[in-house]
DNA sequence: TAATTTTGCTGATATACATCAATGTTAATA
DNA sequence: TATTAACATTGATGTATATCAGCAAAATTA
């Protein structure tokens, strides 16, 4: 929970965003950031609260989700190098989503004013921030497309592909999320996640054993995704 | 179709974005923009094409939608002062959506390089662009929430509230869209739009007569929206 | 003006999916 | 280690919503 002795200048977890900052700019960030450890299941960002900080994940996975009285919708499972809370760049805004830790997390919380300042002085950084915003838009558009146009098996296939290609970058992985979370990712009932995982397993598309999943027939998944 | 004699300096359709530009900056835009007229049903942006321009709507309504082989999803009905195509700010990107005219449109097409240049020289403008990106994110998140959590009547209620509050800014309006479009907005079958409009009409929540709609019981709609 | 296409409307039917209920299994806590 | 709670699983049932079919009305085109 302590402000990092961790020095921004020599930080080897820097996102592309920070790559081209001058030493002076990095110093500014260092003076206005804290490094924080979150334990599994702790809330990092709470939906509805004032958006006044930028977060940068150094280690571990989080889930970003829209809260709802009955049922949540997970927008993204994100990990190392993810910037969170860019909503804060424009003041007087509230977070539209919550973020909680799926495992132990190390992140840097950076004061939004410094980010705003450096966006003025450093054109490259400014571009990177806009890129990040655009990529967020792209991601949630994909999500929207997936949920509005595809049916259950396609949506689950999409989720599995995402885990394999992006989150774990391995066709064999151990889930950090529950079946209920999988249901929140794909916007279906938990029971259907279970049933479909079994069906995929029986069809030898994937191999499921508890939280361990191995993708056997990738192209079949891609086909289901359509 | 001609480059406007329309002078940016004296344009009275300027969006907030352009409000604080210097005369010189406005001149730069003027030299790198064309004013274009689109007729009803013409395509302004085609999904999948290279994103290389910024558009600014001066007059008329457009629909922004995700194309899909079987069924489209309308993200937004937008009008005067809307900036389109900010995806272009980062190069080598394709549009993730299409835009077509719902009526005769006047818009300015601005070269993305000038926009990028002015974002460097003018901090206020830069902030406005980021605000615009953030507001896009917020809108899509709302849509995602609506489609994933609400059922048919709630989704249609949402759409009607949006028409009344934002698009037409009047509780009595004449739709520029077909029932099929309404179905694409709410992600339901066209038949259900018809049935629900009739039901709302019978319950004296709204008064429907063809494309003319009047909202009678606004609070009932708000209730349905939950 | 007639002919054709698109849009709007209505009821009947089908189905994808959620919900419910019941039970096993693992993980957290005392 | 016992106790509780959260998670996972399976089958049976219900329902919201899509699909289909058929026709009327408007709008476009010939």
Structural account:
The structure is a homodimer of 226-residue chains. By secondary structure, chain A is of the alpha+beta class. The first copy, chain A, has 2 domains: 8-147, Jelly Rolls; 150-225, Orthogonal Bundle (Arc Repressor Mutant, subunit A), CATH 1.10.10.10. Helix content of chain A is 42%, strand content 23%. Chain A has 8 helices and 11 strands. Chain A has helices spanning 16-19, 23-31, 112-121, 123-149, 152-167, 179-186, 190-202, 218-225; strands at residues 33-38, 43-45, 53-59, 62-66, 73-78, 83-84, 98-101, 105-111, 172-174, 206-209, 212-215. In chain A, the strands form 3 sheets. Chain A has a 4-stranded antiparallel beta sheet with strand order 1-8-3-6. In chain A, a hairpin with a 6-residue loop joins strand 4 and strand 5. Chain A is elongated. The termini of chain A are far apart. The interface between A and B is large, with 36 and 36 residues. Chain A binds a DNA duplex (30 and 30 nucleotides) through residues 151-152, 178-180, 188-195, 198, 210.
SSE topology sketch:
The structure is a homodimer of 226-residue chains.
Chain A: H1 16-19, H2 23-31, E1 33-38, E2 43-45, E3 53-59, E4 62-66, E5 73-78, E6 83-84, E7 98-101, E8 105-111, H3 112-121, H4 123-149, H5 152-167, E9 172-174, H6 179-186, H7 190-202, E10 206-209, E11 212-215, H8 218-225
The structure holds a DNA duplex (30 and 30 nucleotides).
């Amino acid at each position: 929970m302590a402000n990092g002795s961790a020095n921004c200048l020599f930080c080897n977890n820097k996102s592309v965003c920070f790559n081209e900052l001058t030493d002076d700019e990095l110093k500014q960030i260092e003076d206005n950031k804290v490094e924080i450890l979150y334990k599994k299941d702790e809330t990092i960002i709470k939906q509805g609260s004032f958006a006044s900080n930028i977060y940068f994940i150094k280690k571990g996975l989080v889930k970003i989700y829209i809260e709802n009285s009955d049922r949540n919708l997970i927008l993204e499972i994100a990990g190392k190098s993810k910037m969170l809370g860019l909503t804060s760049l424009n003041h007087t805004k509230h977070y539209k989503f919550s973020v909680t830790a799926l495992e132990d997390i190390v992140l840097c919380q950076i004061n939004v004013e410094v980010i705003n300042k450096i966006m003025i002085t450093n054109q490259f950084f400014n571009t990177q921030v806009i890129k990040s915003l655009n990529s967020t838009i792209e991601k949630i558009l994909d999500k929207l497309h997936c949920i509005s146009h595809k049916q259950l098996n396609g949506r689950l296939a999409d989720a599995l592909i995402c885990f394999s290609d992006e989150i774990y970058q391995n066709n064999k992985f151990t889930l950090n999320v529950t079946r209920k979370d999988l249901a929140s990712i794909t916007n279906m009932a938990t029971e259907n996640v279970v049933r479909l995982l079994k069906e995929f397993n029986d069809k030898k598309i994937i191999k499921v054993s508890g939280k361990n999943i191995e993708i056997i027939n990738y192209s079949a998944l891609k086909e289901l995704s359509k």
